[in-house]
Amino acid sequence: GVTSIAVSLTMNAHPDFEKAARLAVEIIPQILDQDQDPGSLWNINFPESRPEWPLGLKMLPFSLKKSREVLEKRFDPRGRSYFWAGADRLFEHPLEPDADVEALAEGYATITPLQFNLNDFPKLDRYKHVDWQLSSKP
């Protein structure tokens, strides 16, 4: 497998993509020097762009940020309606301590090694003996 590295920048009114790209170019070789396992997956996140950002770089586990889906009815310059889909961040929930979302909110950049395993092993074990059925066969 090929080692893959995702890079994200928390958006605000004036995202500094150039600075995030320069910092990513500094971080990526460090990851590749340290992690020789083929097929590794890494995530680099940068906080909102501010003059003093980031405050530093932390390796932390991934955590979830709650949001809700938002559909806004808008109009294009010709007066035709369309819907803008997005997410409204919910800041009214506690952030997981010592994890990436909290560190990003504090102004730190984060790196997280990830893996693709979304299996719910207890349920796989619990339901493996169920005789699952289809209503029709080919």
Structural account:
- This protein has 138 residues and is of the alpha/beta class.
- The chain has a domain at 4-64 and 96-127: Stationary-phase Survival Protein Sure Homolog, Chain: A (3-Layer(aba) Sandwich).
- The chain has 3 helices and 6 strands; from the N terminus they run E-H-E-E-E-E-H-E-H.
- It has helices spanning 17-34, 100-105, 121-127, and strands spanning 4-9, 41-46, 57-59, 67-75, 81-89, 109-114.
- It has a 4-stranded mixed β-sheet with strand order 1-2-6-3. Strands 4-5 form a two-stranded antiparallel ribbon.
- Strand 1 (4-9), helix 1 and strand 2 form a beta-alpha-beta unit.
Descriptive labels:
alpha/beta; Stationary-phase Survival Protein Sure Homolog, Chain: A; two-stranded antiparallel ribbon; 3 helices; 22% helix
Q: What is the share of helical residues?
A: 10-25%
| CATH class placement of the domain at 4-64 and 96-127 | Alpha Beta
State the order of secondary-structure elements, H for helix, E for strand.
Answer: EHEEEEHEH
User: Strand fraction band?
Assistant: 25-35%
What's the CATH architecture name of the domain at 4-64 and 96-127?
A: 3-Layer(aba) Sandwich
Contiguous helical run count = 3
**Apparent shape:** extended
What structural class do you assign from the helix and strand content? Answer: alpha/beta
- What Rg, in angstroms, do the CA atoms define? 21 Å
Q: CATH homologous superfamily of the domain at 4-64 and 96-127?
A: Survival protein SurE-like phosphatase/nucleotidase
Q: What's the CATH topology name of the domain at 4-64 and 96-127?
A: Stationary-phase Survival Protein Sure Homolog, Chain: A
N- and C-termini, Cα separation: 36 Å
Query: What are the low-pLDDT stretches, counting only 5+ consecutive residues below 50?
Result: none
Strand order of the largest sheet: 1-2-6-3
User: What's the average pLDDT?
Assistant: 88
Count of DSSP E strands? 6
The main sheet comes to:
4 strands, mixed
